[in-house]
Specification:
The complex is a heterodimer of chains A (about 70) and B (about 600).
Chain A: H1 9-13, H2 17-31
Chain B: H1 9-38, H2 44-71, E1 91-97, H3 102-117, E2 125-131, H4 136-153, E3 159-163, H5 170-182, E4 188-191, E5 197-198, H6 200-212, E6 216-220, E7 224-225, H7 231-255, E8 266-269, H8 270-276, H9 295-305, E9 309-312, E10 319-321, H10 327-343, H11 355-387, H12 409-437, H13 446-479, H14 498-522, H15 527-538, H16 540-547, H17 559-562, H18 566-580, H19 588-591
Parallel strand pairs in B: 1-2, 1-4, 2-3, 6-9, 7-10
Antiparallel strand pairs in B: 4-8, 5-10, 6-8
Classes of the chains: A mainly alpha (about 70), B alpha/beta (about 600).
């Protein structure tokens, strides 16, 4: 079963070590996406204090809210 | 952040109808089997089997309910979108790759870029190839072909490539890494897979819809499977093209604002995604702990938890993907999905999730556990004779005439017909719908659709026991704590020799022979009932190898075979040229003019 297009050894081996380093540097500089940092906070996925009563929340039960 | 919105009447009616259909079918099957089992005296095994039939039938009917709802409704574009309205948002098209063939993947990017160039909005779209490739030889080829892609598409400052040194968090971590470095530069992001292909107009329309409704966090398209060549792949492709739109329509009716995310061929609002979808690693080791594997369902649930709308727009065309070409590759992918879905048992109780999202997690878990119900039913049936009470022909004291148990065979036959009806009827109804609405023309005509549908029913009946065994093994492996890792997807021609098929399936042959032998010894009356399951298991190497071979018939013709989309034709042309031309230049200064 062929998983990938056949890889020519020459394709990888042909560049000398210096040329390969140049190539890597070029790809790194040309390929770099714009620098525009953005925070991505981790979400809570696991209940911190599981209890049997917390299962009621699965059915929509909520703690009573204080009335004004 | 948008607030929660009430569910519409259509959504509530659709959910209610699907539940009602499923409950009715399941209750009917339960009582019918109970009566059948009680004919010679009710025993514990009758009750166990009735409960297993109840659960299995509910699951089958739930799927059929999607199809029935889908058949009675039609997809339509959202009312609040002005056709052809201008767009202004910047969009990053993300292409995560992991040990993929760069020639094939990058040719898709070139075709999509050309398709976008035919719209007035090409300047608003950037591509980012996010490599997690670990194989150095493939990574070297990625760099070379990236330079060729840049040169041919004049893509400097529009097409980006970066490779992570550590692939933390797998695909979800790869995308998260991009957003953390570059997310603020974009309003939207179209997330693709390495084998995804999308039409430029479709991508523009997705942005248009996101801009028209600012509370949408994610909009999912329905990708059509294309380019299948093997018999297995073509059967799946045909089934996907004919049946998926109807099933997806049913799903779209039931989802409300809590639609699905399938991990690719979807657009996200970057602000919504980064605020809501940072995934932590789950406590404990894999398979239940560690990185979230099936991250897409979780991200959809987290967006909905934060109040964003997640919608499946099944009216959108021009969205394509490729699928596995043989049963073994299908089973490998399914192993990964199985672990991901079972891992959701850790997340189903996450605080604040909407009830429908919790239900979707349960549904995903059930989709892998349900085959075990059938297997349990078969095993319980083989064991049943040991639990049956001895027949008592003289139950009334001093009554001289024997009382024979009533023959309830017709109830068992009726039940079998009903269950097969749930399996077959939706597909037959969809074929009739395609013929009566003219949709069949795209598949080569009504006769071809009918013949292909019948062939697909036979095909899926033969392959179902083999897939059941693979799924059962996957579930057992995950429950036993075995981590499937992150295997590379096979995207080749998929042909398997008999030896390769035997290597992957000899254990199924063994179980098939053992099961049939045990039934013959302990419950010979069940042998005819077991043959449709046992024969495909015993012949599984032949079936796997035969179905992995290229198809040369017109069976399973799908619309993209007859009239490939322009973006597909463009990709074929680019791929053919790249594969036949010289390998890309290795000297950097010849590859790209870079000042």
């Amino acid at each position: 079963m062929s998983n990938h297009t056949a890889l020519s050894r020459a394709e990888v081996d042909a560049p000398s070590q210096d040329a390969a380093l140049d190539l890597d540097a070029l790809v790194e500089s040309l390929g770099a996406p714009p620098l525009a940092p953005c925070a991505m906070p981790k979400q809570q996925l696991e209940a911190s204090r599981p209890s049997w009563l917390s299962a009621l929340r699965l059915f929509g039960a909520r703690a009573p809210r204080a009335r004004l | 952040m948008p607030g929660a919105r009430p569910l519409g009447l259509a959504v509530l009616v659709s959910r209610g109808a699907a539940f009602a259909i499923s409950l009715l079918a399941a209750a009917g099957a339960f009582f019918l089997f109970l009566q059948f089992g009680a004919a010679d005296g009710l025993d514990s095994m009758d009750v166990v089997r009735s409960v297993l039939i109840l659960a299995s039938t509910f699951w089958l009917a739930w799927g059929a309910g999607h199809a029935i709802i889908g058949l009675f409704t039609k997809p339509h574009p959202p009312a609040n979108v002005v056709p052809g309205a201008p767009i202004s948002g910047r969009t990053a098209i993300l292409v995560p790759v992991y040990n993929e063939d760069p020639v094939a993947t990058f040719s898709r990017i070139a075709a999509m870029d050309a398709s976008l160039a035919a719209t007035p909005y090409a300047h608003l779209f950037h591509f980012a190839i996010l490599s997690d490739t670990r194989d150095e030889a493939i990574a070297a080829r990625e760099r070379l072909w990236f330079l060729r892609l840049l040169r041919e598409r004049n893509g400097e400052n529009r097409i980006f490539y970066r490779r992570r040194s550590v692939n933390k968090g797998r695909k979800a971590g790869n995308i998260e890494d991009f957003f953390q470095r570059s997310g603020a530069a974009y309003e939207f992001s179209i997330i693709l897979d390495a084998d995804s292909l999308m039409d430029g107009e479709t991508m523009v329309e997705m942005v248009r819809r996101m801009e028209a409704q600012p509370d949408i966090g994610l909009l999912q398209t329905l990708p059509v499977v294309t380019r299948a060549r093997a018999r297995f792949g073509r059967a799946m492709q045909f089934s996907g093209a004919l049946h998926s739109p109807v099933f997806a329509r049913g799903l779209a009716m039931m989802q409300g604002n809590t639609g699905p995310f399938w991990g690719h061929n979807a657009i996200v609002r970057v602000r919504a995604f980064v605020e809501s979808c940072g995934l932590p690693e789950l406590s404990g080791p894999p398979p239940f702990g560690g990185p979230v594997m099936s991250h897409d369902y979780v991200e959809a649930a987290l967006l909905a938890r934060a109040g964003w709308t997640v919608r499946l727009d099944d009216d959108l065309r021009g969205s394509y993907e490729e699928g596995p070409e043989n049963l073994i590759d299908h089973a490998k992918r399914d192993r990964r999905w199985c672990q991901g879905n079972l891992q959701h048992s850790r997340i189903v109780g996450a605080p604040g999730l909407l009830p429908w999202n919790r239900f979707v997690f349960v549904q995903g878990i059930l989709s892998y556990v349900a085959p075990l119900f059938w297997l349990g039913f078969i095993l319980a049936s083989i064991a049943a004779p040991f639990f049956a009470p001895p027949l008592d022909y003289f139950p009334v004291p001093y009554w001289p005439f024997p009382v024979f148990p009533s023959d309830e065979t017709w109830k068992a036959i009726g039940l079998a017909v009903g269950i097969f009806g749930l399996l077959l009827l939706p597909k037959l109804l969809i074929a009739i719908e395609a013929i009566t609405t003219g949709r069949a023309k795209d598949f080569g005509g009504g006769a071809r659709v009918l013949v292909s549908t019948l062939a697909e029913l036979v095909f899926s009946s033969i392959t179902a026991p083999i897939l059941m065994m693979f799924q059962t093994r996957s579930v057992i492996q995950v429950l036993a704590g075995s981590d499937g890792g992150w295997p590379t997807n096979n995207r080749g021609d998929g042909g398997l020799s008999l030896t390769e098929a035997w290597t992957g399936s000899h254990w199924i042959v063994t179980w098939g022979l053992l099961g049939l032998g045990a039934t013959y010894v302990f419950a010979p009356g069940l042998v005819p009932w077991l043959l449709p399951v046992a024969i495909p298991m015993i012949l599984s190497p032949f079936i796997i190898s035969f179905t992995s071979r290229p198809s040369r018939s017109a069976l399973f013709t799908s619309p993209m075979d007859l009239e490939p989309a322009p973006v597909m034709a463009a990709q074929t042309a680019i791929l053919t040229e790249w594969q036949s031309s010289e390998q890309p230049q290795t000297e950097p200064n010849l590859a790209v003019q870079h000042v």
